[in-house]
Amino acid sequence: MHNSFIIKGNVCQTINPKELDLHENAFVICVNGVSKGIFNTIPNEFKNLPIYDYGDALIFPGMIDMHVHAPQFAFRGTSMDLELMDWLNRYTFPEEEKYEDLEYAKKAYGMFVKALKESATTRSVIFATRHRYATELLMELMEASGLISYVGKVNMDREASDNLTEKSADVSAYTTFGWINAVKDKFTRTKPILTPRFIPCCTDKLMEELREIQMAYGIPVQSHLSESKGEIEFVKFLRPKNSFYGDSYNEYDLFGKNDDIGVDVKTVMAHCVWSTDEEVELMHKNGVFVAHCPASNMNLTSGIAPIRKYLDLGLNVGLGSDVAGGHSLSIFRAITDAIQVSKMYFRMVNENYKPLVFSESFYLATKGGGEFFGKVGSFEDGYDFDAIVLNDNVLSHPQTLNLAERMERAVYLGLDEKNLTAKFVAGTKVL
To answer: What is the reported pTM?
Structure first.
């Protein structure tokens, strides 16, 4: 059978946010790229499958990065002293201009894809730039990596340099149509996602064009929402008729499910730091996914997203590295950052919202974000088989640790960065 095997080790996951699901010396069975579940002994029907025995290693579901900018990887960890809008205009946009040059794009995107492949991330939702052919190049590299992703050619026709903004809404739409037609059936693991950069960079005409494109192809949507106070004030100035930021997307049917008109657009919005109650209610109603990016929100002085509030209300939430607003591709780092900023929110902003605990944040990084891709982020029967294997023997300790302690320690101490033993994506071994 294709992509059928068994892996053995200490299996750690969260099938719900409230508790860890731990199995010592257990077997996870993969049949045709799909998990059949976790077993203490191998059922007879699977006895003939090959076994990867990882001994005492830790086995986690693959990590999901719900929001990352591939062209920003090249300058991650620099230019961190500015707030969002100045950071975009002074550093990010000038860097993205360079991707008109395919040789530069090939070099930079090659670095990004290599690092992503060597990380704990198995699936990601990726911004490229507005350049069609550089975006296609990125998709080719992602496909070759074995990872699974959505990749978006960015749309933007205002509020950036002449070298980066597209010449008009019509030009942006035409280029996007060409890109989608070129890639929609080309790849198995890499799919297009419609990507209006954010409302400040998209005219009303462009948003109208993007609605038509989405209706024609039925592809998902990604963008940014309510990240910083300055950004929100700018959106109010640009679109005074909308009662809140998210309404600027919803007006063009690019904001999740709208039962009133029979539209169902799979949508992920990054940040949602300052979302109003009205905006949050609409996100919940429409099934919009929130990509929580705690490192970026700290680095760019944007604020702390009230993730406990969103979880209590039943919103879909995953984690994003948001490189290069965030300085690390590590979703392990995002897990711990999410916990830490929630503690600050509880203590310094609103004590009605308790901090996240480890099981909840780990859930967001796996099954929570994985839902955007379908049945992903768990070893439960019927879920796509995404797994990472970690050797935590490199972390010395004098005391005896139980499996829960080893799991938490591996995440907090960043075991994902240099200690991956193996990595599987939809049943394919990529490392």
So the answer is: 0.97
